Amino acid sequence: MTVTPESRTIRPGKPLDSTSRADPILNAGFTPGVHAPRIRRRPARWPWVVLALLVLSAGGGTYWFMNREKAAPGSQYILADVAVGDVTDTVSAVGEIEPRDYVDVGAQVSGQIVNLPVDVGDEVEKGALLAELDAAVLKSQVAANQAQLLNLRAQLDERQAQLQLASEQFKRESGLMAADATSQDALDTADANLRAAKAQIAAIKAQIQQTQSELEGDEANLGYTRIFAPMSGTVVSLDARLGQTLNANQSAPLLMRIADLNTMTVKAQVSEADISRLDLGMVATFTTLGQPERNWSGVLHQILPTPEEVNGVILYNALFDVANPDQRLMTQMSAQVTFMVAEAKNAITVPSVALRSGPDKTHQVLLAQADGSFAPRDVKIGVKNRSVAEVLEGLAPGDRVVVGQRNSEEAAAPGGNRSALRGFP
Asked: What is the DSSP letter of 13?
């Protein structure tokens, strides 16, 4: 395109420099030495366009905000029906099953195991023979003490005869002394012999008592070589082996554990955030990994005051018993425990996600109206869990409440995915 002097608007300004004077387009129609006119620039329009777009966007957003509760339910909100059903508030925990009544059977004397007639899993009655130790040494000790006791009793008989003789001599010397027929030395000697005989008898009696005590101890130890069941139950563990030598002087050797498997105790580990929600007498149910379809139940009877720390988490042990007549529950099984904190049956229910919490534990829902609009409604809540809540006041079965909002793409598409929820309006 050819540029002419008439295609530019030039205002008088500074004198043209040498470069400008050399330009035939700029110098056309002008006399050298005269100030060249300035070029007029058209003002930019894009700031005004951006401002207009912002105003329109703000206006549209305000219109949507003011009218969002009047939108058609099928186009924007996810609704749920207020229904009638059961509501439970529970605390979950993981527990371990162990027998309520059990005893660890040990040995009270040292010796080699010469008889072990039981094995793990055997059921035993109270008083049944569980193990027998070599008793040869203890039998010899018992025999020695019995012989010593016989010897001391024979010595006692001898000393008693000497005492009787000393007593008669003292009486005779006393009579002679009264008749002035003996000396004082003879009387004193008779008196000393009498007192010595009495002392010897007392010493022998003490030795007899000591030996008798030793004999009774040896006989008791001899009895301890035969170990009997202290209770009826099942042998759930066996630590001893036939031929093993036990040393009771260093520590009490553990032979086996007997437990009554008819009643089991579940020790559930509850987090410190939930332990304050539990009360004694509360119903607890649980399942096991091997039988997830079967539910057992019991009553909480004890919460141990001392916690356990597991991987940095503070856990408290809550205990409850459960009957085990068929003995399907075994020692150290894992249990998935549920404590029933509160329960409401045949209650008016609303999804918990529909509730908005307010001050002082108040709640509110967004209720769908007959004309397609929405209105807030104050409700009074009873038993509540993560999925559903009991409604005491404010709603009736059949009411519909907002539980979520579809995104813009789902609202525009027919049959959109209702599972994609967004924030509440």
From this structure: -
